[in-house]
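Researcher: Structure prediction, please.
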Amino acid sequence: MRYTVNHHGALSGDAANALATHGFVVLPGPYSPEELTRVQSAYDVACTTAAPADIGAGRTSLRVTDFVNRGSEFDPIYTWTPALDAAARVVGQPFRLSAMHARTLRPGASAQELHVDVPRTSDAWPMLGLIFMVDEFRADNGATRFVPGSHRRAELPEDVIADRLASHADEVLACGPAGSVILFDASTWHGHTANTSAAGRRSLQATFIPRAGRAATDFVARMQPETRARLSPIARYLIGLDE
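Model: Predicted structure follows.
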């Protein structure tokens, strides 16, 4: 089920309840259809022109770091009011942006093991995860699966599941049209499913962590002059530019 935001841009009551109860929620994203087309094109350009050091080519996916510094087209994702509302609910105040990267799941990629993104012992916990669907997320192209309510469990999947690649009896696929956003408590058990389609499945992923935690990407050290000139006050705050 896809939820909504209220007229102030915050999560609706149903969406906030889904995030708290299930550990994740799927929402319509911040872009119009015309804007989404530009984001998709900018994504491809950014990935093909990234420096080799910024590219991680794994067995199942291609990852490109730091989409704060890769164009204004991506700013509305990590500064989106519903995402900040969700971060305030999951992380609490104050929080910061920790990572913002592209991930393209290769065609034919196998499923990912159920996991959590951050252990409770880390200074990056609690964490809010965000997945922006550059492409539609479907059952056949590797949509992310979640185990509802698992963010409330103290144990990790590897502690209690013998085969974390197998389907879980309670798992739910987070599907949606291109432009949709998944907001999730990063302690929720999750993992992408197999991409049995003939095309790559593109996404942008971000995480928000306690402000005292260490960000996964040092956006300030990588800051480009054109990025510094365009950033809004909230963007500057989220990446720690004025500290």
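Model: Helices lie at 13-22, 33-49, 75-78, 81-90, 157-160, 225-230, 233-239.
Researcher: Thanks, that helps.
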